[in-house]
Amino acid sequence: MGHHTPIVSMDTFNQVQRQLKAGNKPSYGKPEIAFAHLITCGHCGCSVIGDSKQQGRYIYYRCTHFKQKCPDKYIREEKLTEQFEAMVRSFTVTEEQYQWMVAGLKDINAMKDQELADRREFLNAEIQRISNRLSQLYEDKLDGVIDSAFYQKKATEGQERLQDLQANLERLQEASKKQMELGLLILEFAKDAYPLFSFVSHPEKARLLKIVLLKCCLKDGILTPTYKKPFDVLVEGAKYNYPQGNSKRRSRVYRPLPTPPKT
Questions:
Q1: How many domains does one find in the chain?
Q2: Which of 32, 146, 212, 253 is the most exposed place for a label (fewest CB within 10 A)?
Q3: Does a structural domain hold residue 27?
Q4: What CA–CA distance (Å, rounded) separates 130 from 155?
Q5: pLDDT of 211-243, one tens digit each?
């Protein structure tokens, strides 16, 4: 009781936090092969690499053909970007959905808070019991009931147990707050993901994709993503369970999206 699997790793937490802070800072400079090392070939599993043509004006991607000569031809970076936009949009939530999920997260957090409170009560009682035993041991040593060697052995064991209990208590006191912060950050990221992705440069798009994608395969010109947790849950939930604004079932095939209007 009181032990819960984090909804997202601390590494992902830090990456998302940095991306949110840097999202409104477009970068400029020499064109990069932004999506290198992000895609694998759906035919052979080798990496998909990029080539820059006409001093970076055009960028094409293809399989390395390390294992075999795969049938896919070159694909333009713009075509990949359109499909990546659809992936990001698939877990991006509206303001209404964001508020709905935040309310649900708070309800879940309240239940976890009660579990943590029960666990804290148990740990405090155990700490008090160990402290009382250590005090009694000391009294027994002074009264000659036990010798110094026995006292030292039991006192050392008791102090180690006491330190473990106190460390567990300190972790529990931060657990509920940290989980709530992680959950809210992921939801904030999901709300801002598509607008952010549409705005930033291609290298920044790639960094954002590395946060959410476990892997991504390219076959016959179609990208097939595998999402990291909890983004896989957001994608599935977006198809069925969200309130108004996202109720239409989405296709599993990612099609190009219209370019969002400029503001």
A1: 2
A2: 253
A3: yes
A4: 10
A5: 889 999 999 999 999 998 888 888 887 666 555
